[in-house]
Amino acid sequence: MTHPARVECAMRTALPASLQAIEEFFVEFRRQQSALPHGGSWFTAELLVREALTNAVLHGCHADPRRLVRCVLRLKGRRLLIAVEDDGDGFDWRAAWSHPAALTDCSGRGIGILRKYANHVRYNDRGNVVAIVKRLC
Hints:
Layout: E1 8-16, H1 19-34, H2 42-60, E2 68-76, E3 79-86, H3 93-98, H4 110-117, E4 120-123, E5 129-135
Antiparallel strand pairs: 1-2, 2-3, 3-5, 4-5
């Protein structure tokens, strides 16, 4: 019996904490993604990565480009692991997890997006590292 080939792809980068650096990162992300077999939830994967990176830049590092945001993406089969770490002080993710943003709030929807679209989300105790698992279709 033959087993289907498992796709493996990895990206690892350290970005200056700026929105421009995130956009530049996604040029490479899309290039890598386009080389993979068709199918999968690539829109959702990009949404999750973008949300984690944007939160790290804006909230973790206060958009200070002297600080770094580190990102590791690893695809094995149909499972994408996203890990994002920032140089910030962290935050009380437990409080944010249990109190979703109100409809009238202008921000604070990041954790809700992660909860809705990821299969698994885990923060470190300090709150400056998030690991996200997304199973791609």
